Amino acid sequence: MNIYGLLNLGRGALLTQQEAINTTSHNIANVNTPGYTRQRLNMGTNTPLSFWSGQVGTGVSGTGVERIYDRFLGFQINDENQNLGKWEAEKNTLERVEMIFDESTGYGLNQGLSEFWNGWQDLVNNPSGLTERTSLLSKSESLALTFNQTMSDLEKIRTDLDKNIEGTVDEINQITEQIADLNQKIAEAETGGQEANDYRDNRDSLLKDLSSKIDINSFEGSDGKITVLSANGRLLVQNDHSRNLSTQDNALSGHKDIVWLDSEDNPADIASDINGGKLKGWLEVRDNIIPEYMNRLDSLAGSIIEKVNDLHQSGYAMTTDPLTGDPYTGVPFFSGTDASDIAVNSDIIDDVNMIAAAETVGGVPGDNGMAIQISNLQNALTMNGDNATFDNYYNSLVSDVGTDVRGAAINYDHQSSVVTHLDNYRESVSGVSLDEEMVNLIKFQHAYEAAAKIISTADELLQTIINMT
């Protein structure tokens, strides 16, 4: 190797160490960037020259900037993130539901039922008393309104979930559009022989975010582009194109369906195919868990309406029929059929003497026989196939709500721990260590200075030869 070869060797070493310093500086600058993957300049020796005395090395060059990344770990994080999103959505929503049934800070159904039965017991003690009748009317109206309000509050949560679903669908569409755009940028960069490491980091972060919203599967083609599938293999991203999700009103339920649009924008309902992410959690609570609570409330209210009315209609009121002169009978105490529309009969609201406390027509006004029978309903086995009282049935519902909330919280905490563990493991593999980067920076700096010294030495040798001529 001659002096010019030495200069070229020094120049290659200088540029390579400079590139290594740039890569290290890039790592340090992104130490706190979420989703950033540590990069490393791979170096390789240049092709040696052959002489009669043997081969002589020609220095070093960078062979590419590599992402220190475990692809399978990334897939695992996305899989677990889908479950985390589901349990987070269920936990947060069920905590709102639990507040509806929480009576520690105010009036609720448990108290309403208790006061309702106490009102009938007071009427037993004084069946002709105006105060007792007025009090029973007030307590009965409060119970009916509490049923109505509880159902309305539960339906409000379902409506709010529709809004969450619509917003999340819009976010999913934005993410898939960005992934499709990055697919194109990555393919263009890598086809030209460049490294698209930062674009790949951005795409991986978007995939993680997407997996928290809906269950996905993805795979990368030989051109660097990824295909993203969801909900029974439906395409979300392919090459540089994305397929949108949308929502539409369901005529039967009155809530939002999630639909996938094909290449011709034909909608296909995919709600039943979604198995992960926040969408799954919200759909599960909206379509299964809350409706179950509402059905049980309807059963409770419907049974109270039926049992109280059956007895009340066979009793006798204090008000007399102007046509016959006999006390009114056959008057239902409640109107409506379930928790949504239960109300006190308007005739009783207008005249509390229409309350039928008497069991016989001749017993009016002092007879309390019917009031006793209705009061005894409190402890009668009327629910769950005549195996539970009204109070026990409602307390069982409240207990199940608490159990569902605790179950969602436990699963969320567990899943959060799993994802945190995987994220920490990813950081140990792909994250930036400032200590390590500082050591590398010093190492590459010294190598850069040494390469500069090679060039300086070659220059001095060349000057000596020139001065000799």
Molecular structure report:
- There is one protein chain.
- The mean pLDDT is 94.
- The strands form 6 sheets. The protein has a 4-stranded antiparallel beta sheet. A 3-stranded antiparallel beta sheet has the order 9-10-11, covered by helices on one side. The chain has a two-stranded antiparallel ribbon with strand order 1-4.
- The protein has helices at residues 3-29, 71-101, 109-125, 130-191, 197-211, 277-312, 346-350, 369-376, 390-430, 434-468, and strands at 39-45, 49-51, 54-56, 60-67, 216-220, 226-230, 234-238, 241-242, 245-249, 256-261, 267-269, 316-320, 327-329, 334-335, 343-344.
- Helix 2 runs parallel beside helix 5 (197-211).
- It is α+β, with helices and mostly antiparallel strands.
